[in-house]
Amino acid sequence: METPFVFGKVATEKNFTDREKETAELVQQFTSLINTIIISPRRWGKSSLVNKAAAAAMAQDDRLRICHIDLFNVRDEGGFYTLLAQKVIAATATKWEEAVGDVKKFFSRLVPKIALSAMPGNEISLDFDWEEVRHNPDEVLDLAEKIAEEKGLKIVVCIDEFQNISEFADSVGFQKRLRAHWQRHRHAAYCLYGSKRHMMMEVFTDASMPFYKFGTLIFLEKIGTPQLTAFFKSRFADTGKSIDDTAARLIAELTDNHPYYAQQLAQLSWLRTRDRCSEEIVREAHAALVEQLSLLFVTITETLTTQQLYYLKALIAGEKAIHSTAVMNRYRISSATSVARSKAALIECDVLDNKGGAVSFQDPIYAYWLKTQYFAG
Ligand SMILES: Nc1ncnc2c1ncn2[C@@H]1O[C@H](COP(=O)(O)OP(=O)(O)OP(=O)(O)O)[C@@H](O)[C@H]1O
Ligand SMILES: [Mg+2]
Fold this sequence. Notes:
Blueprint: H1 20-31, E1 36-39, H2 46-60, E2 64-70, H3 77-92, H4 96-106, E3 113-116, E4 124-127, H5 130-135, H6 138-141, H7 143-151, E5 154-160, H8 171-182, E6 188-194, H9 197-205, E7 216-219, H10 225-238, E8 242-243, H11 245-254, H12 259-272, E9 276-277, H13 279-302, H14 306-316, H15 325-330, H16 336-348, E10 352-355, E11 358-361, H17 364-374
Parallel strand pairs: 1-6, 1-7, 2-5, 5-6, 8-9
Antiparallel strand pairs: 3-4, 10-11
Helix pairs in contact: 1-2, 3-7, 10-11, 11-13, 12-13, 13-17
The chain binds adenosine-5'-triphosphate (ATP) and magnesium ion.
C-alpha cells in the first residue's frame, strides 16, 4: 500500500495542507505581476507553496506562464544566465520549432547553441559562449519581458535558493545588473525565495544592497497545530487507519510543527500502527527517528567549538539572560563577546535561526537530541 505521508519531496494535492492564506496571496501576486520574496528556514514548505500557487494562478489566467528555476547547484553568472534563458523559452514555447524560432528572434547578439535534451518531456537545452554573455547579458536578462510583450503573455520567473547568488564572484555588481533590468519589466515579474534566512535578509532588507525593496516580502510560517492534526487524521482515515487526537497533537508538538518532520514522524507512526495510532506509538516512532538521526547529529556537533556548545547548552536550558555574569559562569561561557560570536557562527551555519532577534533551533529533533542525550550524559 502507498504510504500516506511525504517528506523530502514537494508536497502536492492530498499531501499538501493548510497555507490557504499564503496560497491566495501568492496567486494574487503572480496574476498581478508583483515581485515577491519568500523567506523561511529549510524544509518549511516554500517549494511546495510556490508550486501550488503557480498551478492555481495559471489555471485562473490563461495568459500567465510561470517558470521555475532552482539555483541549488548554480555557482556562477554563466550558469544563471543559461538556466534563465532555457526555462523562460521552455515555459513560453509550445513546440520545439517555436523554441528554435524564439532563440533566433530574441537573441540578436548572442548565438546560443540549442539542443533538444533526451530527457522525457523533451526539455530544451541552451548553451552560450560565456565570453559573449559576460559582455552582453542584457538580452538574457530582458528575455522574459521581451517574450511576454511579443506574445501577449504574462510571465513570472520563480527562482529557488536565490541566496546562492550572494556567493557569485562580484555578487553585488551582479545583483545591481539584475535589479536594473528587472525593475523595468512590465510583463514579467519575479518570485525569489530561499532558505538561508540570514543571507536572504542581507540581499533583500539591507538598504545598501541592490535588491532592497524589490518586492513584497513574505515570511513563511510553520503549519499550525489544528491544521496538522486535522491533516494527520484525514491521511490515516484515507488508508483505513485512525489516530487519537492526543497522538496527532503529540506529533505536532514533538516536531515543533516543522512541516517536514511532522510528515516524517506521522509516517513512522503510521507504519507502526495496525488500526489505531496512540500516543505510545508516536513516542516509539519519535525515539526511532531520533536514533536514526543521531549519527548525523554527532557529526554536526563535532564541527562546533566548545564555546558554541556552552552557548547552545544555555539556550536549551531556556536561559534568558545569557549575557549575565551568573549565567555565563554557570555554563563556562568566557565572555559576552563569546556569546555574540557563537550566536553569529551558529546562525551562519544554519544550526540556529534568527527571526527578528529571537533565536531558535532550525532543527527541532537536533534540539531534542542535544537536550536529552548529548547534554544529559
Ligand atoms: N503545505 C504543506 N502541507 C504538508 N506538508 C508540507 C507542506 N509544505 C511542506 N510540507 C512538508 O515539508 C517538506 C518540505 O517541503 P518543501 O520542499 O516544499 O520545503 P522547502 O522550504 O522548499 O525546503 P528546502 O529548504 O529544502 O528547499 C515536504 O516534503 C513535506 O513533507
Ligand atoms: Mg525548496
